[in-house]
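TL;DR need structure tokens for one chain.
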Amino acid sequence: MTRKAIGNGDKRSGRDSETWAKIKYDRQIVAIAAVHRAATIYSDDKKLTAFAKDRGFNVVGLGSLPIPDSKAQRDFFKDGQADA
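>> reply
TL;DR here they are.
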């Protein structure tokens, strides 16, 4: 990905506001996902999300994942556990 970006004349692929280290790190994440034939990347990072979507990955935000009932916060008012 970096070689292609350099060949296109912009090693940062238009992400000038990002540090070079962050760009390389995002490329590593996408490359590892591609090598392992992942279809989805889970992330709330906007720049990584855009980069992954550009390369054909489905991206799911962590906030949109369902919380298992066993881990959800109890409603103390409903359960009668709150002090009046």
